Amino acid sequence: MELRERYTNEEAWGILSSIDIRGCSAERITDKDTVRDFAQALCKVIDMRPYGEPVVVHFGSGEVEGFSLVQLIETSLISGHFANESNRAFIDIFSCKYYEPEVAANFCLEYFKGTEYTINVQLRK
Are strands 55-59 and 14-22 parallel, antiparallel or unpaired? Predict the structure, then answer.
């Protein structure tokens, strides 16, 4: 059964996608403006309305050092963490408005110039 059909038939409250991207461009994941602009661009791609400006903070050291991102959307939020040392990105999108997880994942992969991704999708009830 197609995801949209399951979403409707199971009367899901929302959908959560966790997208792990490997092989990202170091230049893209370590640039604050690029990370901030990503939130706005992703909202357009998945037809979500941002609520306020994204919060982008750089912290950590070693393996976990990098930017973290939170973008509230009218139907919930987008969050992400970018690991400088391993050139990976971890994006979570939760919304009670339906969106296509694979469309979001492909956009994230392309935006951060990654080499591959894995995605986990859950319907929230």
Answer: unpaired
| Tens of pLDDT, residues 67-102 | 999 999 999 999 999 999 999 999 999 999 999 999
Please answer whether residues 6 and 89 qualify as being in contact, where contact means their C-beta atoms are separated by less than 8 angstroms: no
Q: In Å, what is the CA distance from 40 to each residue of 51, 62, 74, 85? A: 10, 28, 13, 25
Q: How far is CA 9 from CA 1, 20, 103, 117, 122, in A?
A: 10, 28, 21, 28, 14
Coil, strand or helix: which one is 82?
strand
**Model-level pTM greater than 0.90?**
yes
Q: How many residues does the chain have?
A: 125
Give percent above pLDDT 70 in the chain: 99
- Listed in sequence order, the residues at least 6 apart from 56 whose beta carbon sits closer than 8 Å to its beta carbon are 32, 35, 36, 67, 68, 69
